[in-house]
Structure formats: structure tokens, C-alpha cells
TrEMBL record:
Classification via Pfam families: AAA_9, MT
Lineage, uppermost ranks: Eukaryota, Metazoa, Chordata, Craniata, Vertebrata
Keywords on record: Coiled coil
Superkingdom as given in the UniProt entry: Eukaryota
GO biological process, one term: microtubule-based movement
Dynein heavy chain ATP-binding dynein motor region domain location: 148-198
Coiled-coil segments: 3-58
Organism the protein comes from: Balaeniceps rex
GO terms, molecular function: dynein intermediate chain binding; dynein light intermediate chain binding
InterPro entries assigned to the protein according to its UniProt record, in alphabetical order: AAA_9, DHC, Dynein_HC_stalk
Protein name: DYH5 protein
Gene3D superfamilies: 1.20.920.20
GO cellular component: dynein complex
Name of the gene encoding the protein in the UniProt record: Dnah5_3
Length: 200
């Protein structure tokens, strides 16, 4: 009788165990399903965070580019205005440069400056525009050429550089008043590879 009683209890306990196992399996399936949904949601969240960070970087880059282009706009506007002024003043500037090359060769620095002032006055009277801050040396020769001339023996003062411009740019034979012989030395060094012949 005791054995039968215990077997009945065992069978009831086994049934409860089976029911509990079934419930556990169901809950485990629900947990796995929820875990999968959670993992998917976390992946989507991370993807959204990555996209947001990429958008933030793009916005920062775009903002920096816009700010840089804004600064460039100011520079381009100023450059455009400067080019317009250069175009307007080009005829007068070229007129002054050609007059300088053609007529100022035999004169000293003081008289050259006086000639320029007289020419500017005539151009003002004739309403020919020119640049008030015109630098004839900078207009007619670049720094690299001047440096090369200096290496060949031409002094670095304004008068000597102007003489170098006149010698190299004038269409007529230039006259060099050269009491110290510096111009002579420079021309010999400059033209020695071109077969220069010197008559004493």
C-alpha cells in the first residue's frame, strides 16, 4: 500500500515536473525571442548612432568648408575689384612704363622722378587713368631676374635696377653713364655666354 502511495506521489510529481519543464521551455522560447528583439534593437541603435556621428562629422566639415569659402568670397571680391582697377589703369600704367624705358635712360634718379611727375600731371590733364601707387620696377621686372642680375654684378640700388630694365627692355641701344664701371662688368657677365664682343 505504501509503495502504491509513493508511486502515485512520484507520478504526480513527475507530471508537475513535466508541466514545469513545458512552462520553462515556453518561457525560454519567449526569452530567446525577446533577446533576439533586444539584440536587433541594439544593432539598430548602434547603426543610428554611427549614422548620427557620420552626419555630425559631415556637418562639421560642411560648416568649415562654408566658413572657408566665405573667407575666400571676401578675398575673391577684393581680387576682382583689384583686377578691375588694373584693367582701368592698364593704359596709363603702360604709357608711363614705355615713356620711362624710352626717355629716362641718360638721366639720374632725381630727374627720372621729375619726368614721371610731369607725365602723371599731363595724364591727369588728359584724364588718362593710372595707378597712383605704380611701381615701375615691380611692373617691368620680377625679383628672380633682379637677383640674377645682382649675382652677375649689378648693384642692388633702385637706379642700377632701373638701368638694368632699360638695358634689357629698350628697343634702342641704351646709353650707360657708368663712371664706376659697374654696368660694364654686369653686361660682360650677363652676355659672356652669348658671344659678346668688347671693343676697348
Amino acid at each position: 500500500a505504501n509503495l502504491a502511495l509513493q508511486e502515485g506521489r512520484l507520478a504526480a510529481a513527475q507530471m508537475e515536473l513535466n508541466n514545469a519543464q513545458i512552462q520553462l521551455d515556453e518561457k525560454q522560447m519567449e526569452l530567446d525571442h525577446v533577446q533576439a528583439m533586444y539584440d536587433t534593437a541594439m544593432k539598430e541603435k548602434q547603426a543610428l548612432l554611427d549614422d548620427a556621428e557620420a552626419c555630425r562629422r559631415k556637418m562639421n566639415n560642411a560648416t568649415a568648408l562654408i566658413e572657408g569659402l566665405g573667407g575666400e568670397k571676401l578675398r575673391w571680391t577684393a581680387s576682382s575689384k583689384n583686377f578691375q582697377n588694373q584693367i582701368i589703369n592698364l593704359v596709363g600704367n603702360v604709357l608711363l612704363a614705355t615713356g620711362f624705358i624710352s626717355y629716362s635712360g641718360p638721366f639720374n634718379q632725381e630727374y627720372r622722378n621729375l619726368l614721371l611727375q610731369l607725365w602723371k600731371k599731363e595724364m591727369d590733364n588728359s584724364k588718362i587713368p593710372y595707378s597712383n601707387d605704380l611701381n615701375l620696377t615691380g611692373m617691368l621686372v620680377d625679383n628672380a631676374t633682379v637677383g640674377e642680375w645682382n649675382l652677375q654684378g649689378l648693384p642692388n640700388d633702385d637706379l642700377s635696377i632701373q638701368n638694368g630694365i632699360i638695358v634689357t627692355k629698350a628697343s634702342r641701344y641704351p646709353l650707360l653713364i657708368d663712371p664706376q664701371g659697374q654696368g660694364k662688368i654686369w653686361i660682360k657677365n650677363k652676355e659672356k655666354n652669348n658671344g659678346l664682343q668688347v671693343n676697348s
